[in-house]
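Structure ticket #2291
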Amino acid sequence: MVNLAMENTKLHKVLFFLVLFSSVYLLSVMAQAQELVTKNPRQTGDSHFNQDGFLKINGTARLIIGLYELPKEETKLREIAENGFNLVRVTQDIKSLDRLHKHKLYGWICIGTAAKLKEGDEKSEQKLKQIINDFKNHPALLVWELPDEVLWNIWWSRFHWVFGGQQRELRKHIEKAKSNITDTNISKWLSLLEKANDYNHRGLFNKAEEIYGGLWKELQIKNPHPDWKESDCPAEVDRLSTDIARGCKVIRQLDPSHIVWQNHAPRNSIKSLKEYNKAADAAGCDIYPVPFNPSNGHSDLKDTNLSSVGAYTDRMRAAAPGKSIWMVLQGFGWRDLKKEGEKEEDPDKGRRPNFYETRFMAYDAIVHGANAILYWGTHYIEKDNSLWRDLMKMARQLHALEPAILGQHPKTIPVAIADETYGSIDGRGPRLMLRKAGKDWVLIAVNEHNQGIAFTVSRLPKEIEGKTLYGLYSEESHVVRKGIIRDGIRGFGVHVYATSRRFEIE
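Resolution: structure written out below.
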């Protein structure tokens, strides 16, 4: 009996240490996985960026806060500068750069399709060289942009023909042929048309295109768009990547002082994105998920909610290893893009983001490793409305927090574990980012769940032990005890904790 009791005691000890080791190991893996995503060290020797991928301006790494719109009024241009924006898109125009320089802002110029160079095309090469030489020495120029969403547009440019347009045209010609053709042929053609349509929607583009081609031939009608084939897109993507790489080589030969950036659509495969992105210094995508709609949204991932911003930031990091990641966020409502007669009667359909959503999207991108936050779509909104004011407020907050966002990484990565709750949380707490700026520490917590959660943050550095973490823009504070703080956070909420309130701007 004594021996049996001793054996049971030993067994209990072994099981205890196995459970303890497993828990510690799980926490370690979670922390390391999160840090691997948020760190994207630059390749050595690239002097344009710091080790985390933040662009250097005059030798100092900066968080890029950008706007696609160049306001016409000087008062609005001054407003965006005073609120923390530092980069604005301009046309190929010296006067626009002069305006930015006056307000100590920088500009990016989109080179567009001029960046695509086919081998031996000397005329196009001279055009590209002219653009670079015209602007490269302007003190306000910071970035060259490659053609927007160019990979996606190879596929998208023929969508309306491939998925509907061609079928309607063929059906129309088949109907016209009824008076001169036997019912047997008409029935056969209609059956083939349905078969081709089925192949199309199953992704069997070659089979569909073969049938469509045969129908045009039998109808003795010229296909108006014989080259609009989805099956040709992968090869066109490869050719485009080669042409862009050739163009980027010319850009760098003429202007090694400025970086090249590519914005993608929230589409395309990692494989094609990665090959294309080899030519760029910075890459990212636009993502506009507000309002959330599970059946129809900007995101084509399983996650179509606000948290798709972080998911796409991860995707861009995977598609551009070693590159700076620039994310383009929502500065409009989808209904703003529609003409007056096309707008939904329900004002919530296509509505603009509120500040809570705008704040979440910005911080979600940052804690997933974005090096730049840029806003598209303000061309379509009034400059005295709440969204414009929210964007100014967001820029101020990011600018105030910039020293921390670019701060020193901790040696030990903290972990957030959620309490047991009613949802499918499974213990996953807010996504964390901890940085040191001078003598202060800043902890950003982003809840990517759509429900509120209570959570515990552990493994905070010993340097913070006993110190107070103030909840910025709130009256709450938390004292670090044994490397731990506890808190609760709303669904899609953001908490920023700091050992000082100097990062608050209002």
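Closing remark: Residues 2-38 form the longest helix (37 residues).
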